[in-house]
Amino acid sequence: MEISRLLASRFLVDQPNSKDYLPHTVWSKRMDRLADQVGRAISYVWLVLLAVIVINVLMRYVLNEGRIEMEELQWHLYSVGFLLGLGYAYQADAHIRVDVLHEHFSYRAKAWIELYGIVLLLLPFIALILIYSVPFVASSYALAEASASPSGLPLRWLIKATLPLGFSLLLLTVLSRLLRVWSLLFLETSQPTQGDMRAGQ
Predict the structure, then answer these.
(1) How far apart are alpha carbons 52 and 60 in whole angstroms?
(2) pLDDT single digits (tens) 108-129
(3) Mean pLDDT for the chain?
């Protein structure tokens, strides 16, 4: 008991509020801050993608000139924005959830669901992607893979590298969430109830 309290006082830096029932830890704060910084930086990729699409449309339908490299650049940018934004989306809880039943559970029940979901589903899935994506990128690099089109973009391995990089960032935010869930379930601190949170709103 005393060990749990000592760990809690050492690693817990704040308590959950009405928007987020999971307590933060020192390490989860750092991980989430990194994910937030990467996510905000990657968000500008979507503006670049929008500009490339507009330019490509104007070239095709106004100048009657279609360019393969512009079309390939579109899906390259889409891949970068999607894959490198996975961690930020998970950290910000912006991904799709089935909340019909989940929102009616207690905070501890939600935390248990989160724990089992992370350990049994999400972490094995991320591990599988990382195990197979690294050789996938290495093979592309060794072959100096480029676009199949003569006028396409070179360095195909570079865009493929966003796959393990994006899932590594996702792994970081998943571990952050796991630390927070563990803190709520196993480190003895006074956690507010749903009634307390509604009363404080």
Answers:
(1) 12
(2) 888 898 899 999 999 999 999 9
(3) 82
Q: Phi then psi for 194, rounded to 5 degrees?
A: -65, -35
Contact criterion met (CB below 8 Å) for 73 and 52: yes
CA distance 95 to 175: 16
Question: b vs e for 63-82, b when ≥16 Cβ sit within 10 Å of the residue's Cβ?
Answer: eeeeeeebbbbeebbebbbe
User: pTM for the full model?
Assistant: 0.78
CB 70 within 8 A of CB 147: no
Q: What is the mean pLDDT of residues 147-160?
A: 87
Residues paired with 14 in a beta bridge: 24
Q: Could you give the count of Cα atoms lying within 13 Å of 191 in the half-sphere of its Cβ?
A: 22
Which residues have C-beta within 8 Å of that of residue 36, sequence separation ≥ 6? 88, 91, 92
What's the distance, Cα to Cα, between the start and end of the chain in Å?
32
CA nearest 156: which of 172, 171, 145, 168? Answer: 145
Instruction: Give me the residue spans of the domains in the chain.
Output: 2-16+23-193
Give yes or no for residue 69 having a pLDDT over 60: yes
